[in-house]
Task: structure prediction
Amino acid sequence: MTSRKIEVLVGLFVALAIAAFMLLSLKVANSGMAGTGQTYMLYAKFENIGGLKVRSPIKVGGVVVGRVRSIELNTEEYSPVVAMEIDSQYNNFPETSSVAILTSGLLGEQYLGLQPGFVDETVSILKSGDYVEDTKSAIVLEELIGQFLFNRGSN
Amino acid sequence: MIVDKLQQLGQKSIAKIQGMGRATIMLFGALIAWPTPRKSFPLLLKQLYVVGVLSLLIILVSGLFIGMVLALQGYTVLSKFGAEQMLGPLVALSLLRELGPVVTALLFAGRAGSALTAEIGLMKATEQLSGMEMMAVDPLRRIIAPRFWAGVISMPLLAMIFTAVGILGGHLVGVDWLGVDSGGYWSAMQANVDFQQDIMNGVIKSAVFALIVTWIALHKGFDAVPTSEGISQATTQTVVTSSLAVLGFDFILTAVMFGG
Result:
């Protein structure tokens, strides 16, 4: 009888641990495991990426459609190139789309805002590996203040 | 004079290295053998009960309270910046990466490690271990191996339970008491916690700590001076040495996992 009781308690312990692991991986972590996993890459060249980081979200109208895969410096022009990993179910962005580095809230983290452009016969759809041409760099607070002071001085 | 000091230093170093050597020989003697699941599984189950199930209560209670305190303290600072929605990631990341594995290891060293040392030390003092050898039962296989595996298996499980309960405790204080939005708590957490980077690294950490704590506890017991004073010293040493080892290894693992 005591052996049975021990076995039941050990079983309960392991079940509790599995439940904890399920809670952690399903409710706490992002759905990296549950995602479809099918992605394609787009690239964008910026002048300044500000505080953008690898794994920052890419949003269309506030909805996360992908994440930043890598940020590298182009060695010819010394401008940062951001590789964007986008979920394959959103594969219909025209080449007139634009990307901007935005900030969520006043102190929040920076993310990429993707704005789909217009479509007509002459506009083709972005494929994996294409560059998004229309980009807006991050706003750097110091530059903004510098410009403001410069304008005040000239007036 | 200087030569005497040097001799003392040398003596101590040799004793330490000999101790490590004995610990390694003990572990290898216990683990490297033909597996006999029919005989060793009931022993393992018994030890899982003693080491794992009996540590469950202290892990649950301290996990709950640490999560609650984290949420309470985090809220006072975060609300100054109007960033209450970052309470979820704060609680989840600090528990997953650091507090879960480390505090579980420290509690485990106090709760289960000291008990293992005292038990084995007393077995040695009452000559049960030599008795087993007389009956051609290998005490390393019969006593050390099941306890080692029970510790190594149950501590990552305990750390996971600790973390999950802590996050629920943070929810209890942050959402139900202080009024952070429940959806914000979970969604900000999901946006900031990565399965591979945070959860798996936490599990790896607690597995390493499990190995260290259980090994030190078993070695200190097996190597204890077989007197009542020797056993009490060995028990103290288990808690002190394994706590220090856990904190030291935690720094190294954190630097390797999250520092780069």
Residues 85 and 112 of chain A are 11 Å apart (CA to CA). Chain A touches chain B at residues 3, 6-7, 9-10, 12-14, 16-17, 19-21, 23-25, 27-33, 55, 57, 107 (CB under 8 Å). The longest helix of chain A spans residues 2-28. The radius of gyration of chain A is 23 Å.
